[in-house]
Amino acid sequence: MSITSFLPPVRTLMGPGPSDVHPRISSAMARPTIGHLDPLFVGMMDEVKSLLQYAFQTKNELTIPVSAPGSAGMETCFMNLVEAGDKVVVCQNGVFGGRMKENVERLGATAIMVEDEWGKAVDCNKVEEALKANPDTKILAFVHAETSTGAVSDAKTLCEIARKHDCLTIVDAVTSLGGSELRVDDWGIDAIYSGTQKCLSCTPGISPVSFSKKATDVITSRKTKVNSWFLDMNLVMGYWGANTKRAYHHTAPVNALYALHESLVMLQDEGLENSWARHAKNHQALRAGLEAMGLSFIVDEADRLAQLNSVTIPDGVDEAAVRGQLLNEFNLEIGAGLGALAGKVWRIGLMGHSSRAENIILCLSALEAVLGDAVKQGVAVAAAQEILGA
Ligand SMILES: *Cc1c(COP(=O)(O)O)cnc(C)c1O
């Protein structure tokens, strides 16, 4: 057998994640591996925590990266805060709310579902009704940015409602962190998880999480042990915690954390609010181009995510063949529809380093070339340029 090195092509990643990794971040990842208990590495871990506090806009002490992808961040929040017999109100308006339900039920707790149509934001009134009808609810869980549809929900109001009903909140911010306004302390979020491969433009495989003081107290005073050894924050705190002598828990993914550190330094240097503004502007440019071409968005304008654009497929077009052609002829990846929207939409991501002018122009021209007569020709790039140049 003689298998040779794997040499992936350079693609432009405009799907639902991973997004384009900035060369500064991939080169950080190639730096020499040192021991995870090396004092220099421990110093870098502390910087990662501070940088994450900035990204989340929080002073929460328990703000750390979980050594596994976004789904593990989700499990970390549910495993640590939910105990058997608890009641959790779960909002579902796409794929990821369904995974929250799975988490709750596997823990022997009850999920009260508040469902909204795919492509709509979570309806705050329905959430209020559900909490009124279930006054013994412990936690409200919702997805801030639904990557499966491209809809953003009003996290600030949802957290206000939860507080009024004396509930903790678990918020999925995998796609919102770095790309949409998100203020953990101001909005009073208790537990939040994200991912590195969306608007942070880092390599996949790490999940930043943060827990408020109230949530941390719930975790440290549980009646039962957390059902996972690896994700038990009571143990992980000894590895990442403040004012503790670092004790071995697991081996941190050393090089992946160099990459996360670099991506967070880049976010700090750009400025969080500038990053939100860049995502918003580039979304408007892509939108202008797509609409000029004749494509339309499935999410109402007020609830649209800048970093994930779901557009309808023109009649008679083979959506999978188009994605294949974009990939093979233009090295461009866009996303397919997921769940209820499979076969009905394309999902075009403008996340992190992927959210830039050259990607927008490439995407519009490549789509125009591949779609031919199915769309209006020769107008998309100019429409986008008008906004990019402004
Ligand atoms: C991508 C994503 C996840 C899962 O993250 P992985 O890193 O793929 O495990 C969870 N929630 C949302 C909203 C996502 O977009």
TrEMBL record:
Keyword Transferase attached: yes
Modified residues (N6-(pyridoxal phosphate)lysine): 198
Keywords: Aminotransferase, Pyridoxal phosphate, Transferase
SUPFAM superfamilies xrefs: PLP-dependent transferases (SSF53383)
InterPro entries in the cross-refs: Aminotrans_V_dom, Aminotrans_V_PyrdxlP_BS, PyrdxlP-dep_Trfase, PyrdxlP-dep_Trfase_major, PyrdxlP-dep_Trfase_small, SP_NH2Trfase/AEP_transaminase
Co-factor(s): pyridoxal 5'-phosphate
A Pfam family reported for this protein in Swiss-Prot or TrEMBL: Aminotran_5
Residues bound to substrate: 347
Biological process per Gene Ontology, one example term: glycine biosynthetic process, by transamination of glyoxylate
Domain named Aminotransferase class V: residues: 35-338
Molecular-function GO term, any one: alanine-glyoxylate transaminase activity
Signal sequence region: none
Family named by the database record: Belongs to the class-V pyridoxal-phosphate-dependent aminotransferase family.
Name of the protein in its database record: Alanine--glyoxylate aminotransferase
